Amino acid sequence: MAAMGNPMVRMASHAKKGQIVEVRSLIMNPMTTGLSKNKAGKLIPAHFIQTVTVTFNNKPLCNVDWSTAISANPYLAFKMRAEESGTLEMTWKDNTNGVWSSKASITVA
Hints:
The protein is mainly β and 109 residues long. The protein has strands at residues 5-10, 14-15, 20-28, 49-56, 59-65, 75-81, 86-94, 99-108. The chain has one domain (5-108): Immunoglobulin-like. Helices cover 0% and strands 53% of the residues. The N and C termini lie far apart (38 Å).
């Protein structure tokens, strides 16, 4: 299994102005609820992504609120219209104060 966090963001590096581009992301996180037990019978502490923030050229694009209902190693995909060249940044924050981010750039012609 990949290291905890290890965020990945993938999207086309080039697009025509107005083209729809798919953004795909994955982050390694156990997404545990705090309600399950380990083999010794002790509760496994809750550990899950709470928010995902997406910006493009430092402008807010979307904010996502997650909970324990999301599966382990969550995958998120969405589409955006390529209007200008720039950098997309995704930031994941979890309930244990962990913060991870990843960037991807696109050139629009």
